[in-house]
Amino acid sequence: MGKVVDLPRNEEGISAALGILKQQFGEKFQSGQSVREQHGHTTTWIRNQAPDAVVFVRSTEEVSDVVKVCAAHRVPVIAYGTGTSLEGHVNAPAGGVCIDLTEMNQIVAVHAEDLDCVVQPGVTREQLNTYLRDQGLFFPIDPGANASLGGMASTRASGTNAVRYGTMKDNVLALEVVLPSGEVIRTASRAKKSSAGYDLTRLMVGAEGTLGIITEITLKLQGIPEAMSSARCSFETVDDACQAVMATIQYGIPVARIELLDAMSVGAANAYSKLDLPETPLLLLEFHGSENSVSEQAEMFGSIAEEFGGSGFDWTARPEDRTKLWQARHDMYWASMGLRPGAKGISTDVCVPISRLAECVTAAQEKAKELNLLAPIVGHVGDGNFHALPLVDMEDADEVERADAFVSWLNDLAISMDGTCTGEHGIGQGKKPYLLRELGGAVDVMVAVKQAIDPDNIMNPGKII
Amino acid sequence: MGKVVDLPRNEEGISAALGILKQQFGEKFQSGQSVREQHGHTTTWIRNQAPDAVVFVRSTEEVSDVVKVCAAHRVPVIAYGTGTSLEGHVNAPAGGVCIDLTEMNQIVAVHAEDLDCVVQPGVTREQLNTYLRDQGLFFPIDPGANASLGGMASTRASGTNAVRYGTMKDNVLALEVVLPSGEVIRTASRAKKSSAGYDLTRLMVGAEGTLGIITEITLKLQGIPEAMSSARCSFETVDDACQAVMATIQYGIPVARIELLDAMSVGAANAYSKLDLPETPLLLLEFHGSENSVSEQAEMFGSIAEEFGGSGFDWTARPEDRTKLWQARHDMYWASMGLRPGAKGISTDVCVPISRLAECVTAAQEKAKELNLLAPIVGHVGDGNFHALPLVDMEDADEVERADAFVSWLNDLAISMDGTCTGEHGIGQGKKPYLLRELGGAVDVMVAVKQAIDPDNIMNPGKII
Lengths: 465, 465
Fold this sequence. Notes:
Two copies of one chain form a homodimer.
Chain A: H1 11-25, E1 29-30, H2 33-38, E2 53-56, H3 60-72, E3 77-80, E4 97-100, E5 107-111, E6 116-119, H4 125-132, E7 137-138, H5 149-154, H6 162-165, H7 168-171, E8 172-178, E9 184-186, H8 200-204, E10 213-220, E11 222-223, E12 227-234, H9 238-250, E13 257-261, H10 263-273, E14 282-289, H11 291-307, E15 311-316, H12 319-330, H13 332-337, E16 344-345, H14 357-370, E17 377-380, E18 385-388, E19 391-392, H15 397-416, H16 432-439, H17 442-453
Parallel strand pairs in A: 2-4, 3-4
Antiparallel strand pairs in A: 1-2, 5-6, 6-10, 7-11, 8-9, 8-10, 12-14, 12-15, 13-14, 13-17, 16-19, 17-18
């Protein structure tokens, strides 16, 4: 746990590349320790492996220039958006150059008639949605953090709205990518669908910057629904709540969000967000559609919930009530951390077929108890995806070991249920062993693709494979 | 037009492989001329290039066995489903062995609770939907032909329902694939979403059998909607009809189908399907949802249609009326052919951003007129995708040349509008020059991926790249 390895460094190449980049980029080149460490991975249990320098770029040409210098000297290149990823994605285990894309934050075009837009990778989802609001449009993917869209594409992010609107793989139409050679390609047109050759868009989405650096993204947009409503309902057991979720999906109710909080998480939310919810498993839902449709959806869910012993069912279309509920959901990470101040949260994100969800969540609760770990659970349960978050005293070697055993056990359990060890966070450094257990020989194909596109392994080395 | 080239043949290898396969597969190995020609491409303008032999397989192991023999002797392998693809996908320009997958037609599992199923590649979409009906489930992708699901995955097929349910890329959860080495991999788990490494599922979907042979497919399913309704509406011009489509999509009406027939196509449908529709541009729509929702959707569309001068607006939830309407739409290929008996139909499938659709369709009509070609148009217009179908006397060299010029002009026009030359048919042999014009340097990345996975180029050579 936390024991990421350092990889061999190409000292000569790094030194040469840094010299050239410093001259070429002036003040946009920085190599002070604090800047470097800020660009290594710090938000979770994985230790920081800082790059040797950071270049703050403003254009595709500048990205290409940096990559060309690094390619010539076989120096690692790591793309950086907001640093909110959770599996060591921006660490530099072999050193190298971090390309900070936060200043590439232009919204290049909004094609309202086509329901799409073109953005630079440093645009964050909140920035985009603020910009779009006046045009009656929104971008639905919401991973919680105000992540950059380049980072979200690179980790194939999803979150609360994915049950209705899909993940980044479903919402990226096309990419501009700087390849490991520095060459710039476009992966697709703006057409809504295409059968034009291999799907390079989907190959780059989720590649975690290991095949190239995304410098422009064409995204699908949605019209802001005429109406939205939210609902909540408490259940006696996780199993009852999950059965209600399964029925909701099977009935084809087009829920926009359907989130589970286990009893421990509800307790945390009550304390952090000053709520007074019953401390039993809770479902939070959101419905999008016409006025009629959202009330119809809420009522239909209400009937289903009743069937599975739901209580305290309540729905509202009042914006302030909706906001309060979802703010509490969004604050769950901090609320959970509040259960044990000073501890580190070790984020997991297994995703299983929905028929196995109740079993998987219940088993995770029991296993945590057995290992004497505090591990609240929240989940994007409409997709079978949930986060158990062991809160660990990193100074306690025995507890760290137990947490490690828990994570390993949980990932293996999900894999054994024909699920995945990562529904939305990605592999990065943290989940590499599980990828192999999950997909076996397919990982050899990934290695072949990586070698074909990045033969010198300069693009974010040490991640995925 | 129709001038596909023959590629160099590895006579020695082919002879050796055929000898081994004949012994190994007995009656399941066939090399008679008529069987071979049936397995080459015959349904469109592209001339037949028959394989040297056909092996009728029944299991993944048998596919792997054939591929291993072919790999050892560097002999081309071409997968065959129903042969309904349109761009020479099953032709054998360098000879080799066709693997006929029609007997791999088992529905392996239906997981109703998870809304997914596992099928062999020879299962057709109609076979699957017949099987699912009693369970209240359906598979929504409908390319018109009763294609095999392996073939549909391989061409990234879509069709009339894609506007609501997406294309094959959106509906395949995981694949089992026999690699060019004969090794068998699984690309993903049954989880609804995943961030586990490179998206090999999406890499194989649309790869047209050039990276491996799909031997098992895990598909997302949908619950059969509580209610369905259909609507039709005539417009004075293609522009009016397209404006109505754009407004419908922008308003977020979740249409399940929205199809355009131009005036010439309506004439063809009237003659073929014995209808009496006004011979002006027509939209056909289908709505899925609850009873309330489908009537609400139909009424909303009615208001939009009125705004754009629509006339004869009519909607129905009566199954027999719906069936008649959609049968006529499905028969459009034959109805169009009826406009000029004896001619060959040259299928095109450009897809453009919806804001350019009216312009693109209108320009195509004018260009066809200018070139003195008969080219009825139908389209999956909610996605900006349409088919202009020049009906050509293949004995008339001048007309063939004009048709060739038309197709080339249309593909280039779509590309210039930031669209694609192929929304759903694939590249195959027919569209290779356009792929390069559309995606430029990205094609080099496709070549690198192909070489990495299939270094001896035995998998469906001469297609895509």
